[in-house]
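Subject line: Sequence and fold of a protein, written as structure tokens
Area: Proteins and the way their chains fold up in space.
Start of record: The labelled sequence and token lines come straight after this line.
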Amino acid sequence: KPKIEAPLDPGFRPLVLGKRSYLEAAKECTEKVEWALVRADGCARYSLPVFDEKSKDYRASAYLACILIQEMIWQRSASELKLFGPAKICKQIKAAYSVGGAYEFEAMSMPNVCGTPDKPFVVTIVESASD
């Protein structure tokens, strides 16, 4: 909960507070999901520690990764999303950023935002973080 409540939206909770809480809870996690947003002039990267898929907190990992990717896409734009990490979470993120997924809007909008409307937004799962 924020120290200062938003007067026009008392239920507002900034992403940074949720991310901070998540990172504190996930500090013992040994696996991480990594992503790169490919752009015409380079790429933007990030990694997030993730809970094991058997953990009761696993869903928080998939949810937060998708939200952080969404935030980065709108901040920086991207023509492609590359994922590396545990197979299950990578597959979930790929499905979310595909046609019919929770983030279909971003996947369908990015080609226009990047000035390449004829080239679809591609999501790939790579073998190595260096890919």
